[in-house]
Records
---
Amino acid sequence: MLTPILNELQLKLKIVATGPMLIRDGRMSSDEQRKKLVPNETVRQNLPDSIFVCRNTYADLKDKLNKNDINKLKFYLPRTSLRGLLRQQAESIMRMLSSDQEDPLCCNPFDETNCAERIEKALLRLHDRQNRRNRLSAVEIFNASCAICRLFGSTAMASRIEVDDGVPQGMFAYDERVHVAIDRFTGGSVPGALFKDFVLSGAFETEIRIRNFEIWQLGLLAYVLRDLENGDVPVGSGKNKGYGQATIVLENITLKYRGKHQPNQLLGMADFPEISARRYDFKKHELTQYPIESQVGNGLLSQEYVIQATPTSVIESRFWQVCAGVFNGIVRNAAGADSQRFQKLSELCISDGTIVAQQTENEEQP
Ligand SMILES: [Zn+2]
């Protein structure tokens, strides 16, 4: 991770479950675990087979389950689930844009093509050849990483994006859903076997922070947020049971820069000379419009702006349109990008409008 933090975007948003949602509590996933939590068989049989994940300690969870006080548990939406969701959707957008499915525009974090492993192999080759340096620099790792790892990080590189746990807002609807258990071997139902899920519907509030960002990364995020807003991204498990339908409400967005700059600018990493001089592969863009509503702070060390003060749809937001335009510019110029598929994405999406987004190589590049 680059230090210090030069720019930061904060998004406050609500994730709204429009139907039953279930993110399972892993402490209750096997029969054995359930028996340990609730030794009394009669009590246990009346409990759901799975419950929504909660913050309660093991002892507290045990106590509430034995008193059948499930409604009093402290449910939340784990940050790891939210982050995973954002990353997966970003990956599927990049794969959709790739003309060569054998060589997609992003790595697969679950196989040997993942950036960290690929970079590690390159390092071994370098080491064999030169045998004088056994470590890649942060700049080398960054420049060798794919678009997704540059934003979400990998085992070789820290993430630029940070997500808070989702905190329940207001009233929740609790529900127990009963399902017939299916025999995995025959595909038929198991006589007498029923599954009960304890599901929630309601809203969770969270915050996403992106630090040391490039403007195209915000553009990729704009598409991810649009898909979430459209309800195209299910949250949690049980999609085949119809769980996880959700949307988002973007409540407000603020932007911070370190140091003093021209007012009302959207500055990506390439716009900070102290860092672009270090040969990072940052993309520079010339923006003709700056989508910033107002300046709220102008201290000696930082400037702070409000981009959006009230809930605004992603599609209608000038800010996300500008960022998406920059991402479009990058994809259009990327080797391996499919222009027809890109057209498809463009049609669906936020229009470029009057934005001039040019991808120019950083002048400091070797
Ligand atoms: Zn990668």
---
Amino acid sequence: MVFTPEDQILVGLAVAVVAIGVGAFYIYSSKKPKVCLDPEKFKEFKLVKRQQLSHNVAKFTFALPTPTSVLGLPIGQHISCRGKDGQGEEVIKPYTPTTLDSDVGRFELVIKMYPQGRMSHHFREMKVGDYLAVKGPKGRFKYQPGEVRAFGMLAGGSGITPMFQVARAILENPQDKTKVHLIYANVTYEDILLKDELDSLVANHPDQFKVYYVLNQPPESWNGGVGFVSKEMIQAHCPAPANDIKMLRCGPPPMNKAMAGHLEALGYAPESQFQF
Ligand SMILES: Cc1cc2nc3c(=O)[nH]c(=O)nc-3n(C[C@H](O)[C@H](O)[C@H](O)COP(=O)(O)OP(=O)(O)OC[C@H]3O[C@@H](n4cnc5c(N)ncnc54)[C@H](O)[C@@H]3O)c2cc1C
């Protein structure tokens, strides 16, 4: 077989195109951040920092395998954490990181530890250098920017973590104009989690993010709500029922039940509500 000069040029061009394609693929793959979570199997992450935030709340920072790795958690979803309770029995509980995939190389959990809590025992015992077994992502919550005009959020205690994650994702995306109205309930002022972070999000996005704190036992000087979250508080501080809003709930079971009742009485359609 005889190759003409034209054939040789064509073969040369084809080789060059393939080489460029292979090169581009390798550059793209090496730049794509490594996703760490596996939905099928527990993976171990090293605790690199533990910061006590109050007598029973601590922030745990875990390292990802490389400084450019991302956890790979869709907004508003959570992870399953596995540990041992005080009797040495295995326990698995859901937690929502307060970090996003834009926080590369690490993820953080803000954990409230209950005296009798089984997984609370595991976290209380964890020291820097220990490993935590984590599986995920988990959860039914899905979010596309611009999907709703506004979110109303009803959070209690550690139920703030998924709300914080969703609010951060919205407010840190300049293209996302969704409004967020959060009512956050706690027993005492000291129980309020992530208060500095929430207040700074409000200060930076005053037209887009509003927070109304509610306390059972408020301090002497207090301009937030008092008691349990009521229908009137929801009417005053959350978007009114409409097709383009969504109400999110996350708190202890009695609070979730009470909030579901309030939302139904106020006329929010079931499809415009979500419980984490
Ligand atoms: C989607 C999702 C995300 C979550 N994210 C977080 C998070 O980021 N940080 C976090 O700290 N928790 C979070 N939680 C709660 C967490 O999963 C556990 O329920 C919590 O840590 C208690 O587990 P435990 O095994 O220590 O307590 P358990 O052994 O289940 O309970 C022991 C006792 O602790 C008390 N208790 C337990 N849970 C609560 C509660 N919610 N409110 C009031 N009292 C309670 C009760 O008195 C109970 O009898 C989340 C829950 C869900 C569903």
